[in-house]
Specification:
Layout (H helix, E strand, L loop, with lengths): L2 E5 L5 E6 L2 H4 L5 H14 L59 H17 L3 E4 L9 H11 L4 E5 L4 H7 L5 E9 L6 E4 L3 H7 L1 E5 H11 L1
Parallel strand pairs: 1-3, 3-7, 4-5, 4-7
Antiparallel strand pairs: 1-2, 5-6
Helix pairs in contact: 2-3, 4-5
Length: about 220
């Protein structure tokens, strides 16, 4: 079981926390991590690109010159791909690039990504992130205290002050794993994904976020 330090907003160590090996100590499956990243990028593609083939370009029905005797290479149409204004060879057409991954594969990929951050000493836990308002300057000061310039910040609640304060800081992204325990059935709201974890390198979590992630994914 990994044991990491817990810091406050001033960047001072205030304790230790044990991370659940079922989430933060699994065997890293690089193939699933790669597949999860490719899936997210593929699913985000609009797939609306389109170009015309020689069959779709208007004109070109008349043979530009006779077959023999001109000294030119034989040509059948001015809309062939080698002509200016001609069609495109193997032209792209609108298509759906998305593909599916099994639920267990997605969870394994997420656990592998989180584990890789722990193994690389790129996971920072803070006791809390609380801002009085939307103040980018204050949030930037917190990041400087923690010694990070590029990171994914994960909170345990949907904190608009943190989300909006981080919005204008380059190379900083925010996510959350929130659990609504008001009713009999727990409602999980999560925006964490493998792509952001791998892209931003360092992951900054609140203690509440760690507890929620372990409760949801363990």
């Amino acid at each position: 079981m990994a044991n990491v330090s817990v810091y406050n907003m001033e960047g001072k160590e205030v304790g230790k926390i044990d991370l659940n090996d079922a989430v933060f100590g699994v065997q890293v499956n690089e193939h699933l991590v790669h597949m999860a990243v490719v899936q997210q990028l593929a699913n985000n593609r609009q797939g609306t690109q389109k170009a015309k083939t020689r069959a779709e370009v208007s004109g070109g029905g008349r043979k530009p010159w006779r077959q023999k005797g001109t000294g030119h290479a034989r040509q059948g149409s001015t809309r062939a791909p080698q002509w200016t204004g001609g069609g495109v060879v193997f032209a792209p057409v609108p298509r759906d690039y998305s593909f599916k991954m099994n639920k267990k594969e997605k969870q394994a990929a997420l656990k592998s990504a989180l584990t890789s951050r722990v193994e690389g000493n790129k996971l920072i836990v803070v006791d809390e992130l609380k801002l009085d308002g939307i103040k980018t300057k204050e949030f930037k000061k917190v990041l400087d205290n923690l010694g990070v310039s590029k990171a994914l910040v994960i909170t345990g609640t949907i904190d608009n002050n943190v989300i909006c304060s981080a919005r204008n800081i380059p190379a900083i992204a925010t996510s959350y794993v929130a659990i609504d325990k008001a009713g009999e059935i727990k409602d999980v709201l999560s925006t964490i994904n493998v792509y952001d974890i791998m892209k931003y390198g360092t992951v900054v979590l609140t203690k509440e976020a760690v507890a929620n992630i372990e409760e949801v994914y363990a």
